[in-house]
Design a protein that fits this description.
Helices cover about 45% and strands about 20% of the residues. With about 1050 residues, the protein is of the alpha+beta class. Helix 20 (about 760-780) runs parallel beside helix 22 and helix 25 (about 875-890) runs antiparallel to helix 26. The chain starts with a helix and ends with a helix. The structure holds zinc ion. The site of zinc ion (ZN) has 5 residues, from helix 9 and helix 10. The site of zinc ion has 5 residues, from helix 9 and helix 10.
């Protein structure tokens, strides 16, 4: 049989060919097995089959002679082939990548690699036959070979890695030697582990140091799954442990993933640094490893570098060995059990400042020397110390490592990355110069740090089993941004208030699209993993966790988390582990809720419900509560309302209260789980109203009959303080979005807004301002825009007058005390200036003129972005040039960002085009900022079409640049398209998607749905809105 099967195959193949073949097979998975596969199957043979086999045998004899000749030739050519083996085994071809990499590999680094090749040198022509046998073996079993499967085969487990690296910063390459101690769970001849874009020089496998090597038959890369395969001559035995040694080298990439380089200018001289970004799947670009979160192991890292640099990693340096030639090797302490994605290292010549927590954790902030000298890292350092103390107290689990370094780098694909003990931040999210930073900037910096510190527990200490539950770690960290900030600034009410506008309202916009997805998504391929890191995971995850904490009660919730972290520390856990632990915590206080059952509906179903509460006209004290899935575009709603979309049901913890002019009842919790339910409530008086979702702790919208809406509006106008701040903000957001989706008449949200002239709290203004924004963008290029504009200005005018402009700059104690007031003032000024309040415009112009003439910037910090933007949009080109010049000359990162964004506010299309073109020049605009430039131009009604055109023309460049960096592409696609709203633009979008070449498919389907909903809104509701506005303005 073996002979027969072999005949059907081609002559011996090179590793690359094997990869291609496997790809073909891979591609044909799911098709019915071909005739050959059937012949190989175990079923009884028919006579015809015997004849066929006989023919094949005869044919086979001839072919085998040919094969023998071929094998002989190959044996002769073997030496040549093995010389090339390394090059052939390189990763997938990449422009500018492989050529230089192979070249580098042959250079003697003096790094101490032995010149030896893999043991495969010793093998003969039989290897080729083995390859074929293996291939056929897998085909016969109708299984994918272990290297072609989307997940690593489970037969091996890494216990410990010894990783020795040498970084050559002068040519941006590095060499490494990794020794992995492996435990065998199932006997196998294959070692399959991740490795990508590297050149492997040597591979050895040893049972232990004494017993000697296990011979390697062959090795190859399989780029489709980014793995490296070591085929052994014999099977590894169960429950023994082996050592796998791989010597390799690779580039310190000039992109933002893996081990990459970055640079900055100090004293007129460009300096370089190397830093890593491994999450989610890029550790494999820096060393061969089992790059899935479940494979926790310990790591001992050594980094050899020139003594002019310093090196950092997750653990502190244990010893440093200096060589005479100016090189030094830092040996780091061994890590606890951890996953590869939050391993990290860096080679740089930064300096640092240091502090120590009460429990003795050494916290250092590393940054470029000039920033450290200026003290730009001090704020972050100070709050980090306090936050570690906060988390240790909240979770009742001490921080697990002896130190935590925060590293501020000039370039990074994300705001920050939570590497255990060595968290990396982009400078703009950690450096803060108190003399020129707004409250908003301070808040951004604070929250990013709170987030990454939360991950030291949620993510690093307890790690998701697999990426489908990435929302758990991200949802928690995002939720704790608010809880942790409340600890630092107790008066700010972040979790109770700002969470609503920044998270809940924000994500309900996204999750209200029919093309949304569940927060917990199935993940198979590496490419799916990038997809799960999106706002749904972060923000919906956080909103669900807040709802959970709400119905559990915060102290029980906290106890549950403490148990969860204690039980699973240094291990992995899935969402059910959390649900079970939390259910037990509830049980201990005598409550019984099946948290898994409830939460599965929220995490495995996409979208969210809108609850409709109807006061029953006929029966007293009975209300009807119904639920349906909320979607913006009713064309995508179920066609047959009688049948309904019954597949979407949630168990909803609905809190409900009854109020009258001066009083609101204490809320009661009602679990709503059916499509429609009747509930009894306390007696309703004539003028009493119902309010659902008290303090907006639930992740859903609430709608009422028009009578109840009118009563609520009436209450807000007469005495809004009867209703809580969070609910005032919630009513505004719900009303605007229900109207946008067609559940409510267009005038209701605009009527609610009227009470704002008396509103002294920041949150409802913030909610209104955010809800108005998309409506503004729907109208800003229409003929009658000024009617809308006029209406908004009227609502803002009196509060604008009342609050006035900030006069002096804030000092630290003022920030703490007056955050709410300053943020409210800022919000109102922003509305006034952007809707064209004359006084606001004059004020902005005066401040800018003063700056230009005196060359002293006396513009209050908290409104600088508003003033710059207003100045650029109103004043002539000289102002644009002035801001452009300041953008180049300033070194403070916060200032640089708002100057850049101000440039996008111009009315001058030439200037906007110029800016767009400059945005892709990395020397001028940082890669991560270019996206913001394009998006901001798209928000400007004068630039929307320019940005849209630019985006389409440069798509190839943009996709190549950002395609791999999780968020960026989807942020760009939605940012550029979300405010397109004409039939023509919709056509352009669809045509573009037809013709474009790959990438961001999910983002594009979301974009089409959004634009379709925009167009539909224009068609159905625009006139209704304008009619009401006209009437209202003449009253
Ligand atoms: Zn995170």
């Amino acid at each position: 049989m073996a002979l027969e099967e072999k005949r059907e195959k081609r002559p011996p193949v090179t590793p690359m060919m094997i990869e291609e073949e496997a790809a073909l097979r891979n591609g044909s998975r799911g098709l019915p097995p071909g005739p050959w596969a059937e012949a190989a199957g175990p079923r009884p043979r028919t006579t015809e089959r015997h004849i066929a086999v006989h023919k094949r045998l005869v044919l086979g004899f001839a072919v085998s002679i040919l094969a023998l000749l071929a094998v002989t030739m190959i044996a002769v050519l073997l030496s040549v082939r093995f010389e090339e083996c390394g090059a052939a085994a390189d990763g997938p071809p990449r422009a500018g990548g492989n050529g230089s990499l192979s070249g580098v590999a042959r250079q003697p680094h003096g790094a101490g690699q032995p010149p030896g090749r893999p043991e495969e040198d010793a093998r003969g022509g039989e290897a080729a036959e083995e390859e074929e046998e293996e291939e056929e073996e897998w085909q016969r079993r109708r299984e994918l070979p272990p290297w072609a499967r989307p997940r690593l085969p489970r037969h091996l487990r890494p216990l410990h890695y010894n990783l020795m690296l040498t970084a050559f910063m002068e040519n941006f390459t590095f060499s490494g030697e990794v020794n992995v101690q492996l435990e065998v769970r199932n006997a196998s001849r294959y070692i399959v582990l991740h490795a990508h874009r590297m050149h492997i020089e040597a591979v050895r496998v040893a049972e232990d140091k004494l017993a000697g090597g296990v011979r390697v038959a062959r090795t190859f890369f399989y780029p489709q799954t980014q793995v490296f395969v070591v085929v052994l001559n014999r099977s590894l035995e169960v429950q023994r442990s082996y050592n796998l040694k791989i010597i390799y080298n690779a580039l310190i990439e000039n992109e933002l993933l893996g081990f990459f380089r970055s640079s900055y200018v100090l004293h007129g001289e460009r300096r370089f640094l190397g830093v890593t970004q491994f999450s989610p799947t890029h550790a494999r670009k820096a060393f061969p490893c089992f790059d899935e979160p479940i494979y926790k192991a310990t790591f001992k890292i050594s980094i050899r570098h020139q003594a002019t640099y310093l090196s950092l990693s997750n653990m502190p340096v244990e010893t440093s060995v200096f060589e005479e030639d100016g090189w030094v090797t830092d040996h780091f302490s061994q890590t606890p059990l951890m996953s590869t994605y939050y391993l990290a290292w860096a080679v740089c010549n930064f300096t640092y400042r240091e502090t120590v927590t009460k429990s003795g954790v050494v916290v250092r902030l590393y940054a470029r020397p000039d920033a450290i000298r200026r003290g730009s890292g001090d704020y972050a350092l100070n709050i980090t110390r306090r936050l570690i103390e906060f988390y240790e107290d909240y979770f009742k689990v001490p921080y697990s490592l002896p130190k935590l370094d925060l590293l501020a780098v000039p370039k990074h694909p994300y705001a920050a990355m939570e590497n255990w003990g060595l968290s990396v931040f982009v400078e703009q999210r950690i450096l803060l110069d108190p003399s020129i930073s707004s409250i908003l900037y301070l808040l951004d910096v604070t929250m990013v740090i709170v987030h990454e510190l939360c991950h030291q527990w949620f993510g690093d200490l307890v790690t998701p089993v697999w990426w489908e539950d990435v929302w758990l770690k991200e949802g928690f960290a995002h939720y704790f941004e608010f809880v942790g900030t409340d600890y630092l600034y107790p008066g700010w009410n972040m979790e109770k208030q700002r969470f609503l506008t920044d998270v809940l309202h924000e994500v309900m916009l996204l999750d209200g699209l029919a093309s949304s997805h569940p927060v917990s998504q199935e993940v198979q391929q590496a490419s799916d993993i990038d997809r799960v890191f999106d706002w749904i995971a972060y923000k919906k995850g956080a909103a669900l966790i807040r709802m959970l904490a709400g119905f559990m009660g915060h102290s029980v919730f906290q106890m549950g988390l403490q148990d969860y972290l204690t039980i699973h520390k240094y291990g992995n856990a899935a969402r059910n582990d959390l649900w079970n632990t939390l259910s037990k915590a509830l049980k201990r206080v005598g409550k019984s809720v099946n948290i898994q059952e409830v939460m599965d509906q929220w995490t495995l179903q996409m979208g969210y419900p809108v609850i409709t509460i109807l006061g029953n006209e006929t029966t007293d004290n009975i209300i009807v509560i119904s639920q349906e899935r909320f979607v913006y575009d009713s064309d995508t709603k179920p066609k047959d309302p009688a049948r309904g979309d019954t597949s979407y049901l949630w168990q909803i913890p609905l809190t409900i209260a009854v109020g009258n002019t001066s009083h609101i009842s204490s809320e009661a919790i009602i679990w709503v789980s059916n499509k429609s339910e009747h509930h009894r409530i306390p007696a309703l008086e004539e003028a009493s109203w119902l309010l659902g979702n008290i303090n907006q702790t639930g992740y859903f919208r609430v709608n009422y009959d028009i009578r109840n809406w009118k009563l609520l509006i009436n209450q807000l106008t007469r005495n809004h303080e009867v209703i809580s701040v969070s609910n005032r903000a919630g009513l505004i957001d719900d009303a605007f979005n229900l109207a946008r989706a067609g559940y409510l008449p267009q005038n209701i949200p605009l009527e609610i807004m009227r009470y704002l002239s008396e509103e002294k709290d920041f949150l409802p203004w913030h909610a209104a301002s955010r809800a108005l924004y998309p409506l503004d963008k729907l109208l800003d290029r229409t003929e009658n825009y000024n009617i809308f504009n006029e209406y908004i200005l009227r609502q803002v005018a009196s509060m604008y007058l009342k609050l006035g402009w900030p006069t002096n700059n804030l000092n630290k104690s003022l920030v703490q005390a007056s955050y709410q007031h300053e943020e409210l003032r800022r919000e109102v000024i922003m509305l006034a200036c952007s809707f064209g309040n004359k006084h606001c415009h004059q004020q902005a112009a005066t401040l800018i003129s003063d700056w230009i003439s005196s060359n002293r910037n006396r513009i209050p910090l908290n409104v600088r972005d508003i003033v710059y933007c207003t100045g650029v949009s109103l004043m002539d080109e000289d102002v644009w040039e002035f801001i452009w010049m300041k953008f180049h000359s300033t070194t403070a990162v916060s200032e640089k960002k708002i100057l850049l964004e101000a440039l996008t506010c111009s009315d001058d299309r030439n200037l906007l085009n110029r800016l767009l073109n400059l945005s892709l020049n990395s020397e001028v605009v940082l890669d991560q900022d270019a996206i913001d430039v394009i998006i901001h131009v798209a928000r400007n009604p004068h630039g929307r079409d320019l940005a849209w055109k630019f985006f389409r023309e440069k798509w190839k460049i943009l996709n190549a640049r950002y395609g791999e960096a999780l968020f960026m592409n989807s942020k760009l696609v939605s940012g550029v398209t979300e405010f397109l709203n004409t039939e023509g633009e919709l056509r352009e979008l669809k045509n573009f998607i037809k013709s474009y070449e790959g990438g961001a498919a999910v983002s594009f389907s979301r974009a089409v749905e959004t634009v379709e909903a925009n167009v539909r809104w224009q068609r159905l509701y625009k006139e209704e809105l304008f009619q009401w506005l006209r009437k209202s303005l003449t009253q």
